[in-house]
Specification:
With about 80 residues, the protein is α+β, with helices and mostly antiparallel strands. It has one domain. The protein has one helix at about 60-80; strands at about 15, 25, 35-40, 45-50. Strands 1-2-3-4 form a four-stranded antiparallel sheet, covered by helices on one side. The longest helix is centred in the C-terminal third of the chain and has 20 residues, at about 60-80.
Length: about 80
């Protein structure tokens, strides 16, 4: 089992917003990224545009898609419960 690092002790995801009303989900475990949340259309469909902090070397397409889905699910759950 890999030892925990200081990064691993942080929450996996955070929500951040900016002064220009943009919203981001920040993934703090490897591979770290900041993903802008883009709400599309009347149905409120979400898409995420990631900016990778860590190079996603070794990350295959299904794993990348899973991370984006987890980020979207986290965002939706936080908005549903009234956060941020």
């Amino acid at each position: 089992m890999k030892p925990l690092t200081e990064w691993d002790k942080l929450p996996k995801f955070l929500i951040a917003d900016s002064a220009d009303d943009r919203v981001f989900v920040v993934h703090l475990h490897w591979p770290r990224f900041v993903a802008e949340v883009i709400e599309e259309g009347v149905m409120g469909a979400l898409s995420m545009e990631p900016l990778w902090i860590d190079p996603p070397d070794g990350l295959d397409a299904p794993e990348g898609a899973r991370l984006m889905r987890e980020a979207g699910d986290f965002y939706a759950a936080e908005i549903e419960r009234g956060e941020p």
